[in-house]
Structure formats: C-alpha cells, structure tokens
Fold each of these.
Amino acid sequence: MKAAVYRSTGPATEALRVEEIDRPEPGPGEVLVRVHASGINPTDYKARSGAVPRPIDGFQIPHHDGAGVIEAVGPGVDPGRVGERVWVWLAAAGRRWGTAAEWTVVPERQATLLPDGVSFELGASLGVPAMTAHYCLFADGPVNSQTILVAGGAGAVGHFTIELAKRAGARVVTTVSNAEKAALAEKAGAELVVNYRSPDVVQQIKASASSVDRVIEVALGANFALDLAVVRPRATIVTYAAEAANPELPVRACMSANLILRFVLLYGVPADALDQAAHDITAALAAGDLTGLPVHKFALDDIVAAHEAAERGVAGKVIVIP
C-alpha cells in the first residue's frame, strides 16, 4: 500500500516520505480500515517534528484520525462489521499504523460507526479534537443551563466544544482573534463571540453573562487573567494545550475563588471516558448536531504541503485523501 512515513523526526520536508509498504493485517481484536480521509492535528505534526518525541518502531505512519470502511477483521471481531463506514481515533497512539495511508489497522473499539449521510471528511475531523472537547466539557459533570467560555472557538477543539455544549443545553461564550474566525464560531452556535484583543473583552463578557461556570482553555498563560476576571466562585478551568512557556498562576487569587484547574492530555484519559465520548459524538453526528470546519484537502503525495499548511494554522481542517 501507499503510505506517508517517517523514520526520524524533523521538518516535514526532511522527515516525511510517501512509500510503498506492506499492508498490515488485522490481529486479534483488530479491524482493517480502507482510509478515505485522514485528519491532521497539532499532536501529529508535533510528534513528527520531534517537539513531543515518541518512540518510533522502525517507521511511523502519522495521523491519529481518519474515516473509511472496514474491509477485514481479526480473530474475535464480528465478521458483520466488514463493510461498516467508520471514524477512527487514536490510530497512531503507541502504534505505527496511523491513518496517512491507504489502509490502517486499529483495535475495533477505535473504529466507531459513522452514521449514514456523514461525510468521510467530517469523520476524519473528529477523533482528537472532538474527544478532547467532550472530556474537557463533561469531566466535571453536566453543563445544562451553565455558561461555558470557550477560548479559541474557531479551532477544532473549540468548534466541537461549542457544538457539544449547545447540544447539552449550555450557553456558550467564545473568544477569537479576527472576523473570519468570529463567523466560524457564530456558525457553530456561540451566543457571544468576542475578539480577545479588544480592550473591553471582560466587560463584553460580563455584560452578556454575569459569570462563567466553566472555561475550556487553549492558552492558559495568555488568557488566565481574563478567565479569572469572568468566572464565578468555585468555577472550573480546563486546559488542553501547552504553551511554549509555563504560566505563572496567582495562587492567592485562585484560592480566593476556590478555583478548580484541570489539565487534559487525551492519551491519558481513562478508556471508559474515551468510549463514552465516542458514543456521544456518534449520537450527535446522527442527530445532525456536529458540523465540520472548512476543509483544505491534500492528496497523500502532497503530505509535506499538508503538514506545512496545518503548522501555519490555516483556518479550518487539513484533510489528506489517500
């Protein structure tokens, strides 16, 4: 099969190659998926660059997320799953078989039914961002009737956080950096969208919501003063991304607010929480409550350009078509 691979980390132009390699076969409890779309996330290009190095087992096919059709199953898997349209998550977590290839092999629980009518491109956009959004949003209990502040509402995690929060009955406020991103966040369903560069951002949020119950944060250090200014006592701030420099936190102010800080890395989320996220995301898809960001498509042969586009931070989702 044709696959994108890297054998050592570094810039995309130096590390990534498209090669013909042997197609994997599903082992016990695994399924073979013909990949129709593969999604790129920051964790994928950070691993490839060496910024967050992980062991390489001879070679690594990048990308955790994808969507396609099950073509074969291993021992212990219901043969009736052959032919299922699925979305795939954490394919490359501790494994060499990422989704940037014509086929991938994953444990069967990581190939989740893709509802009829949902595109492969949307299916490949889920995985890391939607499951991160789900855990960040619900790890501290239901959000019905709460006000949620989503930092970076036009990013992939922010986008799905807005939609999942709206589905769960929350009111959503979000911050963005420009008008293009504001339009994306409004389309996702946020009631208030604020440019975080505005000098009166705190006043705008407080005028719309007297206090915020929960913050889903992408840049804790940069945004913590804003978060602290708008949250209620005993609120929760959940952060899922690391900045270049570690933040300094005003401990006394956090104590005075009886604030709860939660740090999330998807690889360490309990298996039952991941399974619940996959179940709930699929239900939301079936109900039409999840949508995709604008898609930038690249052929597998253009994997270097795809990674470079993702690293530049293009608005929307970078998808590779094997």
Amino acid sequence: MDNEQLFSLKNPWFTWSVGGVVVLALASALVGFVWVPYTQLPNTIEGFWDAISTAAGAPLKTLASAEPAGPQVISSDVIVVPRMIEADNVSVGRGATLSLRCTMCHGVRGMSEANTPNLAGENAESVYKQLRDFQSGHRKSTIMAPLAQNLSDQDMRDLAAYYAYLPRMTPPPTLVEQLKAPKIIQIGSPMRNIAPCASCHGGSARKTATPTLDGEPEIYIRNQLQAFVDGSRHNDIDQQMRNVARQMTPEEIDLVSNYYSRR
C-alpha cells in the first residue's frame, strides 16, 4: 500500500519529481539541439530542423552548397606511412647537396626569409609527400612544379631526410603554452566539424605527413588556408583540410595564421 501511494500521481512529491525531470529533459534537448547549433553556426542554420540535423551530425544542404562547383579532382596519389624515410648519413648528405637549388626560397639552413615554408626540422614524410604532389601536379605551383619534375623518388626521399635532420628554431610547445593557445587550435569547433589544429599539426599530436606549423610565415599559412577554401589547393587526401578551412571564418583563419607564425 505504501508503495502504491509513493508512485501515485496523488502523491505531490512524486508528481513534482517526474514533472521536474521531464522539464529538465526538454530544456536540455532545446539547448543541445537548437540553441547550441544556432550559436555555433548563426549564418548557416536556416530553421528548427536544420538545427536538429546539425546537432545530430546530419549534413546540411546549406553546408554542401558552400563548396565551389567544378570538376572532381584527385587529391593525391601518395601513400605515406610512419618512418618510411630512412635518414642515414648517406641520404642526409645527398639531400644537403640537392638542397643547394632550394636555398633561394627556403634558406641556406632551411629557414626562409621569403614568406615560403621553413623546412628545417620538418616531418620527413610531409616534405616527401609535397614534393611528390608538386611533381604529379596534384599540388599546383609555377615555381615548385618545374623544380620537382626532374627529381627521382630517391632524390625526394633524400631531400626530406636532410630537412628533417636540420634543427628547428622553435622548440615544441610546452603543456602550459598549449593551454594558452586559441580555442580553435586547442579544441576546434565540433559543431562545425573543425578538428583541433593541434591534433594533427603538433601540440597534442602530429599525424604522419602533416606539417608542423610552428614558426611558419603568417602570410604563407593564410594563403594556404585560403587556397583550401577556394579549392585551388586540393592535395589533401579525402578533403580533410578543405572541409575544415571552408568552415572557418576569416577571423579564425587570421587568428590561426598569426598564432603559428609567432610560435
């Protein structure tokens, strides 16, 4: 009898408890499925259903239409695995000789003064992949494409080994420095499918064939992000960077470019 009275609508404590849980659940759903998407994507969400679809991870037509129309391109044909570049003394020495043609843009010791990438201490697999992409035409450049045309596969491996061997001017960020980084770099923006920059480009992790951005020229980083946005650079396999860059605001692109250039 006591149990029947406890779980009865005539019991005000039971009624108010159940009602409170229902109200709390509805409020949480409205915040998570409506308010948060509107806050994260104010210029993309067009209605109540768009907000719910975004929170649930479903693609939006408005997001898909943001991609530039045009013929489908092959991003890259390079398969890179960890530690595929053997950096022995012979390879580094050959790479040092080959690098003499690179000094005008990338500096004598791999540190540029011409708003081109700093290559000293760069991930060897990253340097190798970019050279392969320049040679195949998957990454466009009126300067790099002709220079890469006559390089053998071993030449590109040796250059990658040499530049990875050189010391970087900027040490890896400490945990304290990582915690001071902008949110877009630390945690990204999950509601917009933007992964943290630090999860691939150094900091909390560094993916194979992904360049370290610390100390790179600000104008270079900004130009590459803009190239991913407009599709003129498309050698990112499975469009990872194009998908990320197209969801970033111009202010976020400037913020990321400035942050890494000062590292």
Amino acid sequence: MRAAVLYKERDVRVEDLPDPRPAPDEVLIRVRACGVCGTDNSLYKGEYPARYPVVIGHEFAGEVVEAGSAVRSLAPGDRVTVDPNKVCHACPYCQSGNEHLCESLSSMGVHRDGADADLCIMPATNVYKIPEGLSDEEASFTEPLACAVHGVDLAGVRLGDTVLVIGGGPMGNLITQCASHAGAATIVVSEPIALRRELARAHGATHTIDPGSQAVDKELKKIRRIGADVVFEVAGNCAAQAACIPLARKGGTVMFFGVSPQDKLIQVNPFVINENELKVLGSFNNQFATARAVELLATGAVKVAKLISHRLALKDYLDVFRLFGGRDTMKLMVRMD
C-alpha cells in the first residue's frame, strides 16, 4: 500500500509499505478520505511529539475490508469512521471515566500508524458505522467534530450565553456550530482572514471581528459590555491565548482549545484570574463524543461541506504543508481514490 510516513521533523515521505494485517479484535479499513488538521501540521513542524516513524493522519472515513476473527459487530463492506485513540481501560484515568486522558494513550498518526494511507487498522471497539447518506468527506469530520463537542461540553456553554471564538478556521467553525446548538445566543468570531469570517457567519456566528484592523476588546464591549461568558482560543496562538483571558466576564470561562507548541509559555496575570474568579481550562481530545459527532453530521445539524477548500491525492501529500494556514485554505482533504 501507499502511505505518507513521518520520519522526523519536516520529513514526510509518500512510499510503499506492506499491507497491515488485523489482529483478532481489529478491523482492516480501506481509507477513502482523510482530513488534515492542526495537529498534523504541528507534528510536521516538530511542535508536537510523535513516535517516529509513523503513518500520519487520523481524521478519516473508509470501508471495512476485513474483520478480525473475534469481531462480530462489523463486516466487509461496512462504511466506517473511528475514534483514533486507543486506551488501556485499566489506568486510574480510564477507570474514573476519563479514558481520553489515559496514561497509555495511543493515537493514530501520532503513536501508531494512521490513515493517510490506502489501508489502516483499528480496534473494532473504536470503529463506528456511518449511514449511506453521509459522504466519506463529511464523515471524515467526525473526529474533529467530536473534539469540538467535548470542548463545548467542558466549557459549559448554556442557553443565552455570549461566546467568543478566537480563530475561524475549520475547528473554529465547528465550535461555532456546537456553541449555537448548545444554546448560545450571541457568538462572536475573531479571525483575520475574510474567507473564514464569511464561513463563520454562514455557520452561526452573529458577529465577526477582524483583529487585524479592529481591537477585539473594544469590539466585544460594543456587543456585550461585561465580556463573554465563554472564550474559546482555537488557533493555538500563544499571543492570542495570553490576550484572551481579560475578554471573559467576571465568573466566566476561558478555554484553551488550540494546540500550541509544547515548548512555549505565556505570561498571565494571576490577579485578574483570582479577582474575577475566572475558570481557565484546557480541552484535549474527545470524551465519548464520537457517536454524537456521527449523529450531528448524519442529521445535518452540523454542516461541513463548505469547510473543504482543497482536495489532494495521496501522492501529492507534501503539498498540504505548503497550503496549510493559507488565506484561501480551510480543511485540506486527502483522497485515496
């Protein structure tokens, strides 16, 4: 099979590998489409740790080719997507219901071979069937959407809330839609790229801010004088993370959702956090949200078709790092066919 293999920082090669074989509790999946996310870009740049060499990619949909001998719930021909995170079910985090924080977490495309390949394998317990009405590309949004669902759950967005989203890329657009479904009445998206602001408006943002020409704090005060109930920093930008803390109202929540470089620090004023009783949270991965994400996509409650800006063949995989983050780039989709 052909696969995009990450060997080290800024060293990805599309090459031939032996076809993987499923263990008794695993399924072999023919990948149809795989999205590219910020984590993939961070892996490529060396900003996120990986176990080299590894086939990159984890946002995908495909078709079961073979089910292991112990698998009863899936069969060849089933269209599927996955939760790409394998956990141990035995550590204190798993046993307390926080499996996404597992001490032995093994994620596709990071610690174990992923889905930018013709074929991949995954434990059957992590595999979810997708309905026929959902396209492969739409189903490839299941994993990022599950992460957005978890982030909005964790932030506690409530009916009538004012939510500020810093960053209007694909994840910012998914969080905007999830916040809307959670009941937020006012959703403000701060994003310097016009295309992304337009898409945020189409996906439920009530207001947009261009931080390149507008002061975010001043514009937010015009919308709600006391600040946002919940602030999501989605870009993984350290300067934005430091700046977003004063944008929450007293008693509000600041959610660091974006993946920032592992070796970077930000400076915050603890007096502001204490005096205003702010909650500063991080959101990692997804916690039992994959089935909910499939349902949101299948029913059309969350729309993703407009978020795809580029489609690439696997042989052209290296182009994703040239395109990623561009002014006309949203979700990059790698097609195996």
